[in-house]
Design a protein that fits this description.
By secondary structure, the protein is α/β, with parallel strands linked by helices. The protein has a single domain, classed as Rossmann fold, CATH 3.40.50. The chain is built from 10 helices and 6 strands; from the N terminus they run αααβααβααβαβαβαβ. The strands form 2 sheets. The protein has a 4-stranded parallel sheet. Strand 5, helix 10 and strand 6 form a beta-alpha-beta unit. It is globular, with a radius of gyration of 18 Å.
Length: 221
């Protein structure tokens, strides 16, 4: 038993070392976190995306924005995650309040899902972690569901695929729980909006399950 535990510790250390090598911490992040949250947000460029059902915080072309996203996506950086969750929540208050006023109910927040294999290999789902952080801030004012949108088929990593290949890769890889989403407004939280392939797949699954309206929230594009 002790030998098994030791092997696991070595393996976890090896994974962490590789991650640190591939995605090194950047001193700029430490400097950014020393800023007040309001000041930091003012310095980060807003995304040019402006749509009825797609909301994006920042412009991914900015070097600092990319550093922040990678710190959440690959390092699960708690301090960056808390800061970004606060920004997302601030925007969500306005967006969700308007929706509740005109449509009678606020959206249910759902993180973009990973397959069980993906999550086990990575150790976390950054979108779930962000959703949990937002829930801590919102409390009872926000309904968050982690089980209503699921990835049911393994896919290749999207990073090195072109747009057409991405669409084929994620086709019919998700399912939504009809008992939760039917007739409801749903907001899906993701990190980066690139070609939109994953977003459209999540929308397909939710529409099939009867969602009334689907909103997509992103950190950056």
């Amino acid at each position: 038993m002790k030998f098994t535990i030791r092997i696991l510790e070595i393996w976890e250390f090896a994974i962490k070392t590789i991650k640190d090598f591939l995605v090194p911490e950047n001193k700029k992040i430490e400097g950014i976190l020393k800023m007040e949250a309001h000041t930091m947000r003012l310095l980060l460029p807003k995304s040019p995306i402006n749509s009825k059902n797609i909301f994006v915080l920042f412009d991914y072309r900015n070097k600092i924005v990319r550093l922040l996203v990678k710190a959440i996506k690959y390092k699960n950086n708690e301090n960056i995650r808390k800061r970004i969750a606060q920004y997302l929540y601030e925007d969500m208050v306005d967006i969700f309040s308007d929706i509740a006023l005109f449509e009678g109910s606020a959206p249910i927040l759902m993180p973009m899902p990973m397959s069980k294999k993906e999550k086990t290999k990575k150790g976390f789902n950054q979108c779930e972690e962000l959703a949990r952080e937002i829930k801590k801030i919102a409390g009872e004012n926000l309904e968050v569901r982690f089980d209503a949108l699921k990835k049911v088929r393994e896919t290749e990593r999207q990073t090195n695929l072109d747009k057409k290949a991405r669409e084929k890769n994620v086709k019919k890889c998700m399912e939504a729980d009809q008992s939760v989403v039917k007739g409801k407004i749903v907001a899906v939280l993701d990190d980066v909006y690139t070609t939109g392939s994953t977003m459209f797949e999540s929308r397909r699954a939710l529409k099939l399950a009867g969602a009334k309206r689907i909103i997509n929230l992103f950190i950056a594009h």
